[in-house]
């Protein structure tokens, strides 16, 4: 029961990232690059603190560090820019679907054996994403922002693939966040501060320190107890929770076409995740 409760709490934290980003950008009007930068800085501070307390430090070197830092940066800023226009639930679904597609493609690229049922699941999930993103397919999405979320999903998928070889997941994630901060500051200086307000900045800090920093740390703590299959299936709930959060906190009402596309994507991901 304790493991179940911790898993539910972690999935809520993941979905809350979508809701908090959408609130910070659409309601508080914070600049997306500023939001992403503050989120990275708050996450880096929280993860570094946890690493010092639990592991005694944050080693910044290591195999695959450059890929980890760049893919994390792509995810964070693609995520923030996408939520200037996408609803929380739609954004979470596009992100989650693209993560699965990217990791599937990565497995093929690395020469891993892919069972037939996982092929079927990937094709079903991809078909649902095509339905969702196709112009005139029943769901109207802003092209640029949808594209940014696709890039964010690719970034997080690469980040996840790269992180499989990390010796200590908490330290590796802390190092990636810390090293991504200078990239974020360069982007912010190049673009300009944009609109800044206390409400938006607090939402960015909350997203970075709590739902990203603590959320990721909790996830790494329970992953060994969940196992790969249950962990993958648990993440199926993230878009659904994000849709509910969008309805409750942002007044977003999903269309029937979007709910149908959501069902197709999640069914495909479930097939892939449950493949033995």
Question: Can you give keywords for this protein?
Answer:
single chain, 276 residues, mainly alpha, 11 helices, 80% helix, globular
Q: Can you walk me through this structure?
A:
It is globular, with a radius of gyration of 18 Å. α1 packs across α10 and α2 (32-55) packs across α3. The chain contains 11 helices and no strands. It has 276 residues and is an all-alpha fold. The relative contact order is 0.23. The protein has helices at residues 2-27, 32-55, 65-82, 88-109, 116-133, 143-163, 169-191, 198-226, 228-234, 237-250, 256-274. The mean pLDDT is 86. The protein has one domain (2-274). Helix content is 80%, strand content 0%. The longest helix has 29 residues, at 198-226.
| Total individual domains | 1
Radius of gyration: 18 Å
Weakly predicted, low-confidence segments: none
- Alpha-beta classification: mainly alpha
Helical element count?
11
Helix and strand run: HHHHHHHHHHH
Q: What percent of residues are in strands? A: under 5%
């Amino acid at each position: 029961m304790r493991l179940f409760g911790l898993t539910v709490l972690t999935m809520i934290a993941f979905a809350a990232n979508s809701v908090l980003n959408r609130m910070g950008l659409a309601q508080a009007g914070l600049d997306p690059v500023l939001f992403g930068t503050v989120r990275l800085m708050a996450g880096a501070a929280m993860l570094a603190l946890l690493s010092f307390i639990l592991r005694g430090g944050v080693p910044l070197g290591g195999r695959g560090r450059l890929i980890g830092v760049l893919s994390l940066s792509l995810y964070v800023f693609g995520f923030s820019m996408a939520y200037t226009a996408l609803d929380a639930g739609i954004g979470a679904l596009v992100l989650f679907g693209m993560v699965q597609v990217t990791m599937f493609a990565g497995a093929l690229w690395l020469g891993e054996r892919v069972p037939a049922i996982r092929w079927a699941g990937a094709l079903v999930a991809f078909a649902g994403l095509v339905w969702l993103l196709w112009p005139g397919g029943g769901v109207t999405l802003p092209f640029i922002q949808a594209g940014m979320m696709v890039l964010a999903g690719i970034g997080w998928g690469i980040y996840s693939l790269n992180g499989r070889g990390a010796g200590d997941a908490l330290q590796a994630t802390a190092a990636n966040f810390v090293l991504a901060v200078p990239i974020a500051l360069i982007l912010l200086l190049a673009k300009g501060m944009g609109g800044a307000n206390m409400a938006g900045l607090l939402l960015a800090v909350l997203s970075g320190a709590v739902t990203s920093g603590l959320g990721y740390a909790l996830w790494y703590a329970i992953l060994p107890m969940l196992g790969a299959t249950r962990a993958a299936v648990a993440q199926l709930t993230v878009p659904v929770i994000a849709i509910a959060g969008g309805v409750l906190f942002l007044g977003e009402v999903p269309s029937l076409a979007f709910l149908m596309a959501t069902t197709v994507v999640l069914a495909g991901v479930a097939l892939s995740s449950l493949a033995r």
